[in-house]
């Protein structure tokens, strides 16, 4: 039934597209003339050519300085002649209505010899309003490069290319989004990347059937192997240096025009907890930081569920010395632990949402007001216990240590099933939730590669840069996950050559 | 030989295969289950403090069985179903394979109800069993429907999560009487052999190799991993036994139903006491491979026999497990089921040498007929 | 569709899960100490102490509530006490259990059986015998106590002192020797004094009943025989004055010789000690004096050890676990035979005392 309907739908779409193709140039101009910012006029004088462009998209400087003087001065017989005389690069002469439409919509100036001529000259005069390259805000790092991607694809590719001056750095461009016609670039280093990965990515990109592609996160959701998973299956980064280092490892990067983020894949869950800072500090420090972050994540997810489990079912587990503290802080609270936890967790989430939606300055205030005023008031009013307030605050803090924003959201969310589990069967419920999520992670794939990688499938080699980060001299090979064609990073024997004393 | 291999209808696509190393995790995690929580009592009843010898004998016996299983599979053209078909023909072979399927199902069932018994005794006396079984089985369905690779992953994780629990053995050792561990053999050979049989019961699980063998890449290379797994399991059982010897006196141990859990009771950290709750919760990870692999094996055989979708068999078997698991309770019933599955496991292990002999004979006969 | 069904069922299940009865910590009456006395008509009178924590306790001292009930069995006591309590009783955090000497002398096997059976009870719980009424000990927090409640006081008391002169004890150790063949348990004795509670000696069990006691002064020698330890002090009479030996490491080693039927035990003890106090002795601290003190202490300990072993033989008890030791070392160990021969068992105690320091001032 449904299949049949779908077929019908697609056939109507096809007819629509066909009718679009049939649309002539004049119709196109007519439809544009409904907009006030579309300019179309005939030049007087000897050349009776028509100039049309969209005022808001085109740079009038190019028109005034390079196009109009020439058109006014000379006499041209053909459109080719005009093209040869105008000192602007990359002009095209075409009859293809689709191309014309696309280019004009992007801000090209269109010149026709006469009103009815089918052949037109397209002069690039795109004026793009672009943000300056600024410092990364989501993935800030104290040391290391401080450039972040902006919303223009060209600038972004520029940021990558200047770090990777290689002819093998290949950029494939696709246009995706039925309405938005967003430029999407698939970037990889030829010779290092596994062609299968590139194939998968391009294949999936081409299959996208969606009208709008506002941000790269659309891609990451549509391309995901399991779109019902709370875990992001693409690494979303705003740091060009991170993208470059991923590319060299053999990953594929996807960038969309208008999105200040790059997606790299295949990725693993462990990688989502790695910060680019980890590579800028000595390896032992980086290892310790990573372990702290790992602990923070576990703490953030498990602390409140454990609180619920222990206080509701297993109070034998509380040591005698702690008993007095916990019980006396709980003594006045009218709610069971589960309700107490849910109320407080929701409050924190509320603060977070409010902080994220409000302008920066007010946002900070909200944090302070929320944290101090509501927290203290809640404890004073006897609605929550001191101990829980500390635990919730710490777990919220711990969830901020994740370097990738998307996985931070995941951690925020997956806490709640654990809390429900804890209320159901205490520690065993928590354990069951954990089993579910571990099983889910084992099942999950990122563009067909295992998402839980260095752990399962167990690859000791890739563990060198996962929970720990060993020195660069020990990482002589690219990660096995990528199945790269050129796995050697350096000459291991030379990098690790041992020298005797005083040599 | 070649002809035999040609009958091999099992061509598992490469991306469903696992590397030989995982055989270690598959076998080891299958061997460790609910049994290890309380096997000491049964051994000590039979052979007292000399039970450690029984464990070692059982270990050697299992190495032998493992060797036979590999002999069976190496030129068997696939899994147990194929071997049965080749040796006994379509109908008898099929029937025997079905018996194996039921045996796997019984093992799974035993694990589930014993774990529930542990929870009921130690944590929640008033647990609503059917809800728990329902959630547990839906979880298992989720994992098993992911296929063999996911189950292998579960095995791997379970071994890793089980490792820290081993470290907890330090606490009872510290609190115990080391003078108990002294090799004095004061029991007769029959006693020790009886205990050996008892310990084999808790060791069963490697016979699953018979069904997942075709899923191993380069199966010949997996041999050493399999033997290593059996060795490792034996060592873990031995260590657990010795630790409980150190911690409990012999006559006390006869009273203690769950030696390992009782020994967890004394684990104390400044922030947590009474570790048995954590231990039991974490034990879920240890028994999960048993349930998942058990169900997978049990459902795989009908798929191979009748060519029906494994998913349907899985749902059917889960329903079969659900009702008795939700209803059965009480120590006597659970003891009976444990005994039954233990006996069944013992006979299955004994059946393997028989099958090996039969297979060798039938291979020879076939060769003669062809030659 | 499937996901929806799953979600719905999940919610249904979680709603139904309210079926497990639960109450959070503060809603429970958490018993921390329990005591059993002999009541009237062969009944058991149980007393429990339940700490009360005040809300938002900013250092406010916790108080305790004491409940007492009489019944025929321990479980019944629990039930009777529940009748008096507004909150459900929880015995999971029970840290000290006391028995009155009267009760213990008659035998507490039934109670012990319950202790070993109940999964909620901690194995690190302390047990003690009270020479007097446990009710008095539980209900009267000594005025000299540094702790806020009497249960914490008693727990601390036993915990600390079993690091010094008293041998280690807890429920697990008690059960271990209670069930073991050729080993008998012992427990510390607690006596209430005017303003304090004191650990005062050890009570030895045969089966589930107390058959003998030793005073506090002999618990150091007993501990030396029983286990290795690193603390504790012993007073020794020397040339009319007294010396305090400060133990810094005592190790004991059992060795068994002879046949199963005619065994002989060597108990070797190495004691390293410091002398920090000499009262009534006017002599220079010299190596020669040290030798003499060592000699005197060896005599003292050997005499005490022999007396202890003699007492064990008379009462036919084996707190040192010699029988258990023999069992693990010899084949064909026969418990009844061992018991018959026990009174004639040869036990040689060899003690070596080494005095290492005289304090920082000499």
From TrEMBL, chain B:
Entry's transmembrane regions: 21-39, 51-70, 91-116, 122-144, 151-172, 192-213, 225-248, 277-299, 311-328, 340-358
Protein's recorded name: Spore germination protein (Amino acid permease)
InterPro entries given in the database record: Spore_GerAB
Membrane topology: Multi-pass membrane protein
Protein's cellular compartments: Membrane
NCBIfam families: 2A0309 (TIGR00912)
Organism: Halobacillus dabanensis
One GO term of the biological process aspect: spore germination
CC annotations in GO: membrane
Protein family: Belongs to the amino acid-polyamine-organocation (APC) superfamily. Spore germination protein (SGP) (TC 2.A.3.9) family.
Keyword terms: Germination, Membrane, Transmembrane, Transmembrane helix, Transport
Automatic annotation (TrEMBL), chain C:
Subcellular location: Membrane
Predominant place of localization: membrane
Residue ranges of every copy of the Spore germination protein N-terminal domain listed in the record: 21-190
UniProt GO cellular component terms: membrane
Biological process terms in GO annotation: spore germination
Species, as recorded: Halobacillus dabanensis
Signal sequence interval, chain numbering: 1-19
UniProtKB keywords: Germination, Lipoprotein, Membrane, Palmitate, Signal
Name this protein carries in UniProt: Spore germination protein
One Pfam assignment: Spore_GerAC_N
Bilayer topology: Lipid-anchor
Top-level taxon in the UniProt lineage: Bacteria
